[in-house]
Design goal:
heterodimer, A: mainly beta, Porin, 9 strands, 8% helix, elongated, B: mainly beta, Immunoglobulin-like, 2 domains, eleven-stranded mixed sheet, five-stranded antiparallel sheet
């Protein structure tokens, strides 16, 4: 998954550099909420963001590609269970999450409220398609042990966000955002996470 | 001046990040406690009631009980799984008189399960019991009232391990088969009992033999036979409103028989 991510990052970087646009690198703190908040620790994601349009226009859109991995909040989750077996019983067990990785491709939209000013509030909304790979072991007494070395899932999410952009000079911009990723369709459990980001952006104009 | 602004810009995500800490998994698990265990109806059952004290981080999906006659046991030991989500839930479990049983309730949500503390309960000795109807002593009521001409009892019958027989009328007999020497309490009337299985300890089968046994009929399932161990050492078997199906017609059958 990491090799694929870096190949796509290189391709995206090259294609945006050939246009009159902006390209940026974004670091985010990804903090799961809801179901996963008890299972996965917050982690850091890295994204490359490319945006079309003038740097000082109200609206810009673009594409992004990002990757992050999260680690489990504890080594073993006791008190998990399975239901079944010959007596159709609740069978006590445990689970171990070895890894959780996510590679996402997104369409990003930004609305700058004061594009010509040094500071501008920004409202944005992204649409992400994420590929998720989870490696875990699940055990339930009398039921089969399931060892899963990388089951793949996918999710589509929207990420509404707000933030502030600071214009360092005509070429460089620094932004901070807070958003929440909300999945609404996919094969994995519905996922929500808070995403607090810092984006360093360079204008190719 | 510009550097000061940049510093404040970085404070925003830093502050938000503080709120993004992971939550302890233990908070997700539901909790439950057993409220009561009480003797229930017949001598071989108890009613166990439990309450969900916390549903954890998700709605309850399963509830249930497990129990054993030893203080430490596995959750899978004699488990009753309920597909219910009620805050308070109950179930009737088999537990014989004069025995101490240990009960645990469990509840589960999407994250995991929680188990109550173990609850020990000694099933009380059953009191003498008699049929809830008025029948004269030593009477068989079947198409008329009969006083048995002979009452027999003992071990090694064709079914179970103890029988009581009341001969009545002209060459008729009522046979009652137990899986033990009957003691105080209510016995469930069943057909085709597996008398080799200890769970049928408080079950009973009755057979009506007419015309010197040329015509035998099993008494319909349902209802109870009541046993009273009397102070003089005798034992009274009584029942009422049982029925026997003869040529597609159900006939009522009641009796009160004492043997010593």
């Amino acid at each position: 998954m990491k090799k694929t991510a870096f190949s796509l990052l290189a391709f995206l970087s090259f294609s945006f550099s050939a246009l009159r646009a902006q390209i940026g690198a974004q670091l985010s703190l990804v903090a799961p909420t809801g179901y996963y908040s008890y299972l996965l620790k917050p982690g850091v994601s890295f994204e490359i963001v490319g945006k079309y349009g003038e740097a000082d226009s109200y609206y810009s859109f673009g594409a992004s590609i990002g990757y992050f991995s999260l680690s489990a909040t504890q080594d073993t989750f006791h008190n998990t269970y399975g239901v079944g077996g010959p007596n159709n019983a609740l069978c006590p067990g445990y689970s171990v999450i070895h890894s959780f990785e996510e590679l996402s491709f997104g369409i990003t939209n930004d609305l700058k409220l004061m594009p010509t000013k040094k500071f501008s509030p920004v409202i944005g909304c992204d649409l992400n398609f994420s590929g998720i790979q989870i490696s875990e072991d699940d055990y339930a007494e009398t039921l089969e042990l399931s060892s899963d070395n990388g089951e793949d899932y996918w999710l589509i999410s929207i990420v509404p966000r707000i933030g502030l952009q600071y214009k360092i000079n005509d070429k460089f911009f620094l932004s901070a955002f807070f958003g929440r990723s909300l999945s609404f369709v996919g094969t994995a459990n519905a996922q929500q996470y808070d995403k607090t980001s810092i984006c360093f952006q360079y204008s190719l104009e | 001046m510009r550097k000061a602004y940049i510093k404040y810009l970085f404070f925003i995500p830093a502050l938000v990040a503080l709120g993004g800490c992971s939550k302890p998994y233990s908070e997700t698990l539901p909790a439950v406690q057993i409220n009561s265990v009480s003797a229930y109806g017949m001598v071989d059952s108890v009613l166990v009631t439990a309450t969900v004290t916390s549903q954890g981080a998700g709605p309850i999906e399963y509830e249930g009980f497990s129990f054993s006659n030893t203080p430490t046991f596995d959750l899978l030991s004699r488990q009753v799984l309920l597909y219910s989500t009620a805050t308070t839930f109950s179930v009737v479990l088999p537990a014989y008189q004069d025995s101490t049983f240990y009960f645990e309730a469990f509840v589960a949500n999407q994250y995991g399960y929680g188990v109550s503390k173990s609850y020990a309960f000694t099933v009380p000795t059953a009191k003498p019991d008699s049929a809830p109807c008025s029948i004269p002593q030593n009477t068989v009521e079947f198409q008329g009232n009969y006083t048995p001409s002979d009452i027999l009892w003992g071990g090694s019958p064709p079914y179970g391990s103890f029988y009581v027989e009341a001969d009545f009328g002209f060459s008729n007999a009522l046979d009652i088969y137990f899986n033990q020497v009957p003691t105080n309490g209510e016995y469930n009337v069943l057909n085709n009992i597996d008398f080799t299985n200890s769970t049928s300890k408080y079950a009973v089968t009755l057979i009506l033999n007419l015309n010197s046994g040329f015509n035998s009929y099993g008494i319909n399932e349902g209802g109870y036979v009541y046993i009273s161990q009397n102070s003089n050492g005798s034992t009274t078997v009584s029942f009422c409103s049982l029925s026997v199906n003869i040529n597609s017609v159900n006939y009522p059958l009641s009796a009160k028989i004492t043997f010593n």
